[in-house]
Amino acid sequence: MSGLQQRRSDSGAEQGTVQEVAPVNPVVHDDKENSHHPHLPRYNHNGHLVQRGIHPDGESGRKWVHPWMFLKICIKSSSLISKLVNVLWPFVPAAIVVHFAKPDAHLWVFALNYIAMVPTANLIGFAGQELARKLPKVIGVLLETFLGSIVEIVLFMVLLANNDNGNLIPVIRDAILGSILANLLLCLGMCFFVGGMRRDKQEFDSVVSEVGSGLLLTGGFGLVIPCAFSLAVGDDIDSVALDLLVLKISRATAVILLMDEEKDADREMDLAKHKLTFTECILALLLAIACVSMHAIFLVQEIEIIVEQTAISDMFMGLILVPLVEKFAEHLTAIDEAWDNSMNFALAHVLGSSLQTALLNSSLVVIVGWGLGIDMNLNFSTFQAILLILAILVVNNFLRDGESNYLEGA
């Protein structure tokens, strides 16, 4: 008995020595994900076994492709606005049929393909959102923002490819400006207004607004450099030499810009919805991007004829019509986030999309045009340059206090 007591006392002494030499620093697990043992199976909020490499919020509990469930989720598991947009899917086959059956009906071909791009762009946004939920947060947001602008990139590339006599270059320039203005004024205003309809005010992180405002000013000033240069030296040299210099400045600016680049009210409801598998997300994106590319080609082929035969001008086409359809999915996502009181995510979509257009997409179209031998430049008119800078300054002023309401959106 005394031997057993002696061993216990020795053990206690050893424990006391360990505590004295190396004090215990308990590890506090903030959430279940961090406290989960790496070798044990993990289940998400819906009871689904989480597969390796998939975030619990995006786990569907299924594998590969289930056609009926795939269609059901794409129709029902998005926001209310997206559900209403899905009624436009019959326009997709109709636009394809009219393009080949009635090629001389230019207005009908243009209108049908314009409408058909809306549900396909919406599917890109939804599939991108589903895919982003399966990835780490930062990577998911970046991927979702990029996929939201994929329609714009496709349209710019199609416009460049169909630019035979230089008539579409003003349309591309106007589309770049119109895209940024649509994000900053129309989409952000709708976010403030829609979100303010359910609450007296909404708050967002000042870091998001400050960083976004600074980057927007950087991108905005970068875009107006060719215009400022043209105004500064326009009276000293002839127009041909000036155009060549502006083109070189635009290409240099494009290279520089290319190098710089938990309040959700419905979170529980969104998490409880059925989700697409990883394979279904890729399939939906491929299908939607293929449809968008096809409709963009059919649409761009009719632009010159529509401008010549109707009262629609190049500027209206570039500033209004093209930006509305190319950013449709991004606008729906941002407005839905604002409705759910996730203003940080809404601002991330709006500001991120604007920055991508200013820093990446505009630079990409200039560099691609350079490679194709097309003199694509960023020489905006003085009025357009002033309009862009004023819009950025106005938005920065509204974001300064970190709060928004419906009146600011209106």
Describe this structure as you would to a colleague.
By secondary structure, the chain is mainly alpha-helical. Helix content is 71%, strand content 1%. The chain is built from 19 helices and 2 strands. The longest helix has 29 residues, at 343-371. Mean pLDDT is 77; it is low at 1-35 and 261-266.
Order of helices and strands: HHHHHHHHHEHHHHHHHHHEH
What value does the Rg take, in angstroms? 27 Å
The gross shape turns out to be globular
Strand order of the largest sheet: 1-2
* Termini gap: 85 Å
Q: Total helix count?
A: 19
Mean model confidence by pLDDT: 77
Structural class, please? Answer: mainly alpha
Given as residue ranges, the uncertain stretches (5+ residues, pLDDT < 50) are 1-35, 261-266
Number of strands: 2
Helical residue percent? over 70%
Strand content: under 5%
Main sheet characteristics: 2 strands, antiparallel
In short:
The chain is mainly α.
Present the secondary structure layout.
Layout: H1 2-21, H2 32-35, H3 67-76, H4 80-85, H5 91-101, H6 106-133, H7 137-148, H8 150-161, H9 169-196, E1 202-203, H10 206-233, H11 239-259, H12 267-272, H13 278-300, H14 303-309, H15 314-326, H16 328-339, H17 343-371, H18 382-399, E2 403-404, H19 406-409
Antiparallel strand pairs: 1-2
